[in-house]
Amino acid sequence: MASFAKECIILLAFFFFFSSSSSAFPRGKRQKPQPCKELVLYFHDILYNGKNAGNATSAIVAAPQGSNLTILAPQFHFGNIVVFDDPITLDDNLHSNPVGRAQGLYIYDTKNTYTAWLGFSFSFNSTAHKGTINFMGADPILVKTRDISVVGGTGDFFMHRGVATIMTDAFEGEVYFRLRVDIKFYECW
């Protein structure tokens, strides 16, 4: 029994020494993780306005009572739900060859400022990339750069997670906008 107590005391002393040692548990600032993969892409959204059916890549599918489906609602577009199937390019030119499609929806969800909730995927089927990247999060539109979560992917992006910094790169009224999407993956499988 005495040897057992002695072993416990030695074990506790050993534990105490290493748990209080600064070399075993360094304190201070944590190092910022480095991305395992990065991409910069652009997607181009052309909202259907009743006259541009041939060029439109997005459409209002739900609107507040009294609104229509070709004009965004007044008062910060609150209540509008828009679905989209937009081209993704490697540069900011709408007429560049697309490398994939941005497909999903955005919901204008705030009454007192321009804010949207985004849920969408980048779908690739090119020689450079195959698979999808899935995004989800709030978009405070009036902020110059904002972050949304990369919540997963398939194919070349299987189980990837990270952060996408988005920036409105061009804006033409309520019909066209272009987003620059700077994707940083912190989990790559």
TrEMBL record:
| InterPro entries attached to this UniProt entry | Allene_oxi_cyc_Dirigent (IPR044859), Dirigent (IPR004265)
Q: Which Pfam families match?
A: Dirigent (PF03018)
Which keywords describe this protein according to UniProt? Apoplast, Secreted, Signal
Signal peptide bounds? 1-24
Q: Which GO terms describe its cellular component?
A: apoplast
Taxonomically, the superkingdom here is: Eukaryota
The GO annotation for biological process reads: phenylpropanoid biosynthetic process
State where it is primarily located.
secreted
In which compartments does the protein localize? Secreted, Extracellular space, Apoplast
Known role: Dirigent proteins impart stereoselectivity on the phenoxy radical-coupling reaction, yielding optically active lignans from two molecules of coniferyl alcohol in the biosynthesis of lignans, flavonolignans, and alkaloids and thus plays a central role in plant secondary metabolism.
The record describes its quaternary structure and partners as: Homodimer.
Q: Which family does it belong to?
A: Belongs to the plant dirigent protein family.
Q: Supply the name of the protein.
A: Dirigent protein
Q: Which organism is it from?
A: Momordica charantia (Bitter gourd)
